Amino acid sequence: MFDRLQDQPADKILALMQAFKADPREDKIDLGVGVYRNAEGVTPVMRAVKEAERRLVETQETKAYTGLAGDPAFADAMIGLILGETVARDRIAAIATPGGTGACRQGFELARLANPDATVWCSDPTWPNHLSILKFMGMPTRTYRYFDEATALVDFDGMIADLEGVASGDIVLLHGCCHNPTGANLTDEQVGRVIAILTERGAVPMIDLAYQGFGDGLEADAAATRAIASAMPECLIAASCSKNFGVYRERTGLLMAISADASDTPTTQGNLNFLNRQTYSFPPDHGARVVTMILTDPDLRADWEAELEEVRSSMLDLRDQLAGELARLTNSDRYAFIARHRGMFSRLGLPSEVVERIRADHGVYMVGDSRMNIAGLNSETVPKLAQAIVAAEKA
Ligand code: PMP
Description:
Aspartate Aminotransferase, domain 2, Aspartate/tyrosine/aromatic aminotransferase, 14 helices, two-stranded parallel sheet, 7-stranded mixed sheet
């Protein structure tokens, strides 16, 4: 039977990782995959995570199953981190999931259970796996305009015009902060206008929050999510702890489903538990427990917040350095958007031939759509990248 299988399309980002590994040049630079790296190129285990794991090894007395929704303390801690007090707790159903990917998948599954006809609207562009999962599930998808290639900022008029076509009961997938792959984000005012349109159309927002703390800070990065969740009757939120806790391989995420009325929450929760049961029974616990320990222990939390702030500001410094270097080399402000973008990525708006030349001639690997991972740089490689961009554009 396996001889009947067809090859699956290669994941472009993972293929880029392979190509980078195979490149013998010593001064090659990897700006591909979305993993934070410090100036030494290392993805460190955060201090608070190490300490929480140490305590866990010492104190954990059982590894018996948790509940289908995971440990309720994890949901409580994450809801506090993401929503604060903005939504009544009794309207929120939640399950722990394997990472943000698992949260997205279960969110789509829940939407389909509730409304088999729902179309999921994704930004153009979006994290490619959103579209890949939706296609695999056979769910109808549409895209809304999001990125203006000319300015490298949000094409807000295009976005609004496209969202006018959303039908009642459709799902509109939004990035909570630090848009992947573009780095371009909505202003507070624009979020307000999106809320107004979704309300008018009767659509349900689904927020993918994978980078809280990587943009403007933990609170600021949650502001759009809080505004949307508190204004709309229903909302899905898929959160990942991979980046902000650096627990990528532990597969730690949470899906929240906010019902219009608290009386609906038990059924929503039952459906979420059912989805976990059908997929893997119990979600992974180690990362979730570590995150819970950090969020509920004042000392660990303060240390985590401090380290996350170092990570965030190092990426902002690199943005400023790169924008400055490009301004100097091009004698223009056409790359000023790099300093305005937020999060780990910026889409530079370069044609694919230029991206290819940057890779072939200078050994700098960015994704073919000209998305670069800013955390792949350090103060020595910033000038090299700036020179490579300028040279490849001229060639
Ligand atoms: N959503 C977005 C926008 C992402 O960029 C990512 C990670 N690349 C995820 C979800 C999934 O993250 P995780 O590794 O936690 O599954």
